[in-house]
Amino acid sequence: MELMPGGEPTYVSYGNYLYEIAALIVELHESLLRCNTEYTRYEQVMRTDTRMRELATKERPRYFDVTVQIDPAWPWYIPWARRSLTICFAHKVIVIHRTYLGRSFKDSTFAYTRRTCIAAAKTILSEARQERHEDEPIIWIDQAFCIAAGIVLALDVMHRRIDEPEFDAHYELVDGCITMLQQYNSSVLAQRGVRLLHSLLRMCISRSPSSSFSGYDASRILRHAYQGSLDGDGMRLPPGSGFELVSDQASHESPLAHISHGISDLHYDFDIFAELFPPQAGFSNAFLFEDLLGFDLVGSADVVH
Questions:
Q1: Which end of the chain has fewer CB within 10 Å, C or N?
Q2: Do residues 71 and 277 touch, judged by C-beta distance below 8 A?
Q3: Superkingdom of this entry's organism (predicted)?
């Protein structure tokens, strides 16, 4: 073993930095358990948000800093490690705020949470769309983070009027996320994410054009995602199904006017949330989806569990 300077990357640098991120999330859980009021709980969320941003900027090793030019002497994995860490940080920001995400769509007290989670979701999808080197590994958990980003943006769409500019913009981001996930046709996780996000988009158009959702429950979303299949291969919609987004540049009409006619024909698989791992693994899908889907939104007083 050889002692290396702190500014030089080694094969354990990536894992060590991920450990720092994970440790901060554990600290948040412990601090929340000690809180007795809503105010003090949200105060801890805000403090952890600030601490996470410091970890991502001031305390980030220079070789993981995207503003620092890459040294040719550094390991080949530095570029993809930077992108993966950016995605990870953005997802952990969503994790920090997840308890108040549902409420943030109805209560302006938590408006910062809504803005923060939307920005983090956009960062995740932007980084995930970057061109990859042919030798770069595919990190499966990044696909789960993309699904989480799609869920956040879909929930935001549900709480906007169709005539709001963010409605179309965020709808298209979710649709683009679906397209990106479809490229991983050998990933069970990506396939299930595609179906879940399709189900959320379907709910986005099942309402009056002049209103936002006043309430919905996650169990209904899962029921939609459990029934039937998207098409013959369980992944892609057939051409001409009506689910494609159409550019709105030439018209003031919402893209939803072009896609709604095909939605009623969609069906969903019952087993899409079957466990990804064998029993011997010792853990289930809950760590991927439970926190973002384990809630019912019926009014501003409801909480994401």
A1: N
A2: no
A3: Eukaryota
Written as six digits, the tokens of 280 are 């011997």
Is there a contact between 297 and 105 (Cβ–Cβ < 8 Å)? yes
Flag whether 179 is in a domain.
yes
User: Measured between alpha carbons, how far is 230 from 267 in angstroms, rounded to an integer?
Assistant: 5
Whether 61 contacts 85, CB under 8 Å: no
Whether 234 is covered by a domain: the verdict is: yes
- Overall number of domains in the chain: 1
pLDDT in tens, 257-271: 333 333 333 333 334
Both structure tokens of 222: 């899962």
**Domain span holding position 37:** 13-297
Task: Take residue 278 and report the two structure tokens written for it.
Answer: 């064998």
Q: Report the distance separating Cα 159 and Cα 249, nearest Å.
A: 23
* Helical segments of the chain, H only: 13-33, 38-56, 78-104, 111-128, 140-158, 165-182, 188-204, 218-226, 256-259, 286-293
Asked whether residue 84 is assigned to any structural domain, the reply reads yes
